[in-house]
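Researcher: First entry.
Model:
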Amino acid sequence: MMYRTRLCSAILLASAGFAALGGSTAEARVFITREQALQRTLGDHAEFRRESIFPTSEQVARARTLAGKGVEIREAPLTRYTAWTEGRLLGTAYLDTHLVRTLPQTVLVFVEPSGELRTIEILSFGEPEEYLPRDNWLRQFDGRNLDDGLAIGGKIHSMTGATLSAHAVTDAARRALAMHQILATGDPAGETEP
């Protein structure tokens, strides 16, 4: 009986967390965990380090300028994962949760050591599934840099009937690349977690 009470409490807390984002546990669908996405992209042999980064107001302001007009970057902690093998950096992944229309989406944006996008993985999506970005659409981000081409109407094609989803993913890519550039050139002011 105690187990059932704890389980119900955990479900209620999870529901409250999703409701704060504008969705509910019934509406959010998880497609892949971040651990699965990290391993699928960077391999089983990689060692991952999770970092909680606390960017300064100045870093956020510089990132907003780099990301471009209309791309929201909040003054809030961000989570990134660095992947290593035999002392060599394989890449960095940024966790980005945002609203598409009224419901949350979480993506993992992978950045190569060179600073270009490696790939984007959709971890969860709360909107109706017909608005979900598909893998073949996401592949157009692979190898892109933070430039004018990384935009809907630039080198990134929109999705018919899912314009908000297309913009949300594109903004997440621009946010991650902008923060990556800023954090790579200065003190990340972060705390590393094992």
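Researcher: Second entry.
Model:
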Amino acid sequence: MKPEFILMLTYNDTTVRDALEIFRECRDAPVTHWGFKDVGLPTEEMKALVREMKDAGKTTYLEVVSLSEEEGLRGAKIAVEAGFDILMGTVFFDSILDYLKDKPIQYYPFPGHIFGHPSIMDGSIEEVVAHAKFLEGKGVPGMDLLSYRYIGDARQLLTEVVKATGVPIVSAGSIDSYRRIAEVWEAGAWGFTIGSALFDKKFVPGGSFKENTIAVCNWLKKTAEADLAKYLA
């Protein structure tokens, strides 16, 4: 299956100040999944943005890149209050899972050891896989894997985590080329996020944010699995 494209209105792991205006300009693009980070906007502006996304029929994602338990719980509470569909990120804590267990929201935490801002992941592939399996055993319905923020072989990491687990894996962070999207697809990940690369015009140099967004959509639409080899060579 082709991976799902989650468009993040973020740059360098921070929600952009004009996120609402950009969403309004681009909401007719063929993108179902939209999200942003827990940092960069005041809470009330975050809530207003997610309301517009929901009103437009979008599936909504809040990605929490703050790493403490307190900040993770804060992000979870904002996600619930604002009506997000999926909470992505946070360093996993039982308290966050317990808080969300009776709420109408899915929780996709980070597997692996995460540090810094923008976020980075280290450790061996075996350690990340073991942690992913631990999280699945805890009952999380999906995971937010920082594949291309990994200090190591991102492609192998993604492949091994997907192979070892049975829940949706989202490859998040630093996807800035069709080759990386092809690697996500090849690995069998459920989806991927793109944020900064759209602002940096990585897909249509010199083009607008919307033109870069539509270019990714068109690539996914026209590319078949048989075409992946030319991007992976």
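Model: Note on the second entry: The chain has one domain: 4-232.
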